[in-house]
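thread: overnight batch results

M.L. [08:02]
morning all. the overnight job finished for the chain we discussed friday. pasting input first so we're all looking at the same thing
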Amino acid sequence: MVEARLLQELIENEIRLQSGRWELTSPVNLYRPVSYSLNEGGKRLRPLLVLMAYQLFGDNPREALKAALAIEVFHNFTLLHDDIMDKADIRRNRPSVHVQFGENSAILSGDVMAFIAYHFLLESHTDRMVEIMQLFTRTAREICEGQQLDMDFESRNDVTTKEYLEMIRLKTAVLLACSLRTGGMLGGCDDAAARILYEAGIHLGLAFQLQDDLLDTFGDESAFGKKIGGDIVSNKKTFLLTEALQKGNARQKKELLSWLGKESFNRDDKIKAIKNIFEDLKIKELTEEKISLYNICGIGILDSLPVERERKEPLAGLFRNLISRKV
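M.L. [08:03]
and the structure it wrote out:
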């Protein structure tokens, strides 16, 4: 088996190779933002999951590299459009694509990235291409559904935790699940194992997004790569906020709703006030417990795979590391 570190190097080398080609591809104003987006860095979690899931069953991870790249390109396409919709000016400590190149360029370059992703996926050599393409297409549609729910929540202050968890299942978790299932299928797993990988990925994705929620409010700004408190400032419906609205007393709920309704406010004052309520209600601890529960369940599901334990351990280790991350 190839170590995770070497798999990451394989992914980075392939991304650098493709980015160099896009830099020289005409029209440059279409493809240069694509290269810029992929060269921003990031965790490369999704392509790594593809290759690690492949290695549960196969021995040549290069066979899954194009699919891994497809999923990473698609993920970055969603970030381009998300940043426009969220009016986010910074991504990974650099100007967002729409700031660097303009909003119209970011929209069109994002569109072409979606089609590039399909192109890479079709370069995979497998007799299960139809099944993989169906999974990928369904996942793409579900991500759009999740993004729409996220946008719908912006105008609502009665979003429940159940609704929020369904939204992040669609917006975030399904792509991690798709990554694992795709890698497993390329490695030769059977249908039962593919379903197990998908379910483990859903639990990992839920834990991963809740950790993001937590870091946005309680993380280290220098490590996180963007200003802490952005979700609070923008009235983003997160697990922290929905739980606080549900568990708070009448005074706390009134104060939260007051801040949610203000159009003019001091950024630091709002963050401090809402964080104080979160701390009074022990929302941080509650979120950590939920993250741990999803992660333990995900590892338990993964453990049920009929695969040698030494093959499963690197992936289980990645699951554990992701919930202890600071970025």
